[in-house]
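User: Can you help me understand a structure? I only have the sequence.
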Amino acid sequence: MTTSITRLQFRYSGKLADLGEADRRRLFDRTGTREPAIADVVAKIIERVRTDGDSALRQLARELDSVELEALEVPSARIEAAYARVSPALRSAMRRSAANLERVHSAFVPAASEIEVEPGLIVGRRPDPLDRVGVYAPGGSASYASSVLMGAVPARAAGVREIVVCCPPAADGFPSDIVLAAARIAGVDRVFSLGGAGAIAAMAFGTETVPRVDRIVGPGNAYVAEAKLQLTGSVAIDSPAGPSELLIIADEGASAECVAREAIAQAEHDSRAVILVLALGPETASRIREAIAMAVETAPRRDIIIQSFAGNGGVLDAGDIATAIDASNRFAPEHLLIATRDPGAVLPRVRNAGTVFLGQTTSVVFGDYITGANHVLPTGGLARSYSGLSTLDYFRWTTYQRASAQAAASLAGDAAIFAESEGLPSHAAAARAAEAKR
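Assistant: Let's start by predicting it. Here is the structure, written out as tokens:
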């Protein structure tokens, strides 16, 4: 045990109260700065796609994916064949995930409302589904069928008219079978063998083949994230994204082994993942450190996990629940697991988190795949101002106003006074003319 524990290094250890100022800033201000080299590469890719369209996309596939694309769009026959090749067990799991996503997100579809502000004056807001959305699904070294479901099923529940998916091609020129199967299950309309910043640009501008979308959602690497940020003036996005994050609040009743499993599961995403456990008391912190160190030894992706903990992870003794909650709200994690005796009592005090898991039996992995909640979530502390992906992301709101003749007569005088005070006499005249028409 000693050898295992000394081999695993934690970036943050000891007491939260004793954390140095530099570590405190690093921990609680994770938005960081954009890398100039990546920003420059992405800007050039965006301009190539804006200028040359499909031709640029084919050339980028040669340069970046070492693939000669016969067609940018995946034929429906290929999607059907991929669906048939996926194992029945995986198809069943994906259908269950899609069904739960449909149930949850259909329940959250917003409704129109209106109010009579004053007698005869009506103001209303109506949610209108977007016409077309683009879902980006990461590919390359790993394929994420779950990202297709998380992006596309809520869009379908919202009533979006057309859903397109872009995913990097494998060596054969097509996305993986599981991504294509997920697209079929989610009811995606069109799938394109496109990845990286080029795919984001194609969906933002439209090309000869790829349609222009109204919003782009879904996770991706640093180049995808940078492209989404650079294109926010041309297309709406879900939220800026970074490495995966998990914060766990654990009291003395928490199972150290359970906490360790959850921490390691999220750490295996990426060597840049940020995993932080806030333990209530030094003994609890010590037990959890030992459990993580032991579990890492047999983890298949142990090299990535070790890098994650050494670079960005840790177990800190927060002392008490109030301090842990305050720190969590400041940290604003993507995922928050409350492993305490009464997690329901903690939940009302949570202000900033992408999604919250209540109790040790509510595995964060369930949220990644199967609960029907969404795993497209804000990172880097942006849960202070952004929410996880939901049907709300697939609507725009139409506001309408109606004034009766009597209301116009009541409003005209004050509206004209406002207009004249701002030096806009024609505004004032229009307001008085509306009164005269009654």
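Now, to help you interpret it: The chain has three domains: 2-30+243-387, 36-237, 404-436. The first strand starts at residue 12 and ends at 15. Let me know which part you'd like to focus on.
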